């Protein structure tokens, strides 16, 4: 770190360091987290709405908070370069959006198997034709089977805290796979909210590349001369057996991240009013609307609870089962057409018939609280027109 | 470790399927139980002293003199092998061996079962092997052999080993050697 920062551990940074309230965008929140993370190198290719984040990261590079930063040729090049830089044991950040994520996906899905620790910002955007830059989080469905740890931020504060925590989680020796922090493009990235941040003179301790489950590529130090990844590409030199356990090891690593999600973020879910007849389950920006619907319902004296899902991977199956154990109806509002969160929730509980499909918005639509309220009234057998009148 | 044998449809069992993870700091894992480090050390010593062809598998982190700690550890591991009466077979390279491994003199994380089978090893200690490679090797050994595996790890441990002790630095290895001497005496060896 070129600036004289005070280096501290992540527990102090997140839980103890004094904070001040700021009114900033989600993109600023992500960049401010990067500023406090002792990042060695950032690499990215611009795409809306991610470009706001990486522009700001460029600014903090110019101010000396990051050692290296460059614009790659496109996203496959970006994500491949991240994998290459990780071999040297440095701390890495990149971000992308929608089509950029899919273009980089071939490299991204190889990161966990190559044991690449890095933080990936995913500022969600429509991926389907016709071309659009609007927010829609369907791209996260493609990331869910890649093996990487996935956090989903509800607002600007989450974006800041999760991005910082992600740098600690990704470098844990028993995890050591990438951690993504997703949040909705524009709704969060370009909108302002209150974010409590610690002083920027504080920063996360620098990484120790020798506390790693694989050798860092330091050619001056003998253990690193043992070639690390090339054999994995040579399937004719290896059996199905090693590939099988290698895949298991990646998903084990993903599972091991859960204890650190508890440590740094208080757990993979937040539950309000457990045991209610109707539970709203939501993640990301939809959780903000679900939280508001929950507040309306409380004011109306309705038996409604709320589950915010912070971690999409590792998937908190046991926690979701427990939170929904006695409810009669589950509503899953989402910002995508396929309902990937709805499918996950259905698969997690024994009585999936209680899960309502939606409400869903996509293509950049907002998610009015009234849509969720209509589902709540239907679930409780109430006529929403009468109540709204 | 969890139970021996396949996990679901996979022939290669993993402890996390059964909800077992690396031990907490200051603790160790013996089979499915989290125990105090010293309890695990005594059991590990007993298993190594009473099993056929007990073997230590030192990895690159203790085979090369890349730090003062590595040198200290290497000396202690040699002493450990003498106290336990264990052989040493190195895992010095993580690349798969082509066309064929020499199972008599080396072990490789991509097909560690070949070395266990060839030498009829019934108990082994992994030490100085980078965690990723230890984990994949331990998974294969668990499902393909009846060898009792022990992970003595400088970092956070290995749930797929039947016994795992974490944060093992040179002073901890010295402590283990003293415990192994006591257990050896108790066993009348």
Structure description:
The complex is a heterodimer of chains A (389) and B (189). By secondary structure, chain A is of the alpha/beta class. Chain A folds into two domains: 6-204, Thiamin diphosphate (ThDP)-binding fold, Pyr/PP domains (Rossmann fold), CATH 3.40.50.970; 270-388, Rossmann fold (3-Layer(aba) Sandwich), CATH 3.40.50. Helix content of chain A is 39%, strand content 19%. Chain A is built from 14 helices and 16 strands. In chain A, the strands form four sheets. In chain A, strands 4-3-5-6-8-7-14 form a seven-stranded mixed sheet, sandwiched between helices. A five-stranded mixed sheet of chain A has the order 11-13-12-15-16, sandwiched between helices. A two-stranded parallel ribbon of chain A has the order 1-10. In chain A, helix 12 (340-348) links the parallel strand 15 and strand 16. In chain A, helix 4 (75-86) packs across helix 5 (98-108). The model of chain A is unreliable at 229-233 (pLDDT under 50). Chain B is of the alpha/beta class. Chain B has a single domain (35-183), classed as TPP-binding domain (Rossmann fold, 3-Layer(aba) Sandwich). Helix content of chain B is 39%, strand content 14%. In chain B, strand 1 and strand 2 form a beta hairpin. The longest helix of chain B has 17 residues, at 68-84. The radius of gyration of chain B is 15 Å and the shape is globular. The mean pLDDT of chain B is 91. The A-B interface holds A 115, 172-174, 176, 211-215, 221-223, 226-228, 230-231, 234, 237-239, 241-242, 244-246, 248-249, 251-252, 255-256, 259 and B 10-12, 14-16, 21-22, 60-61, 63-66, 92-96, 98, 109-111, 130-133, 135-136, 139-140, 155-157, 159.
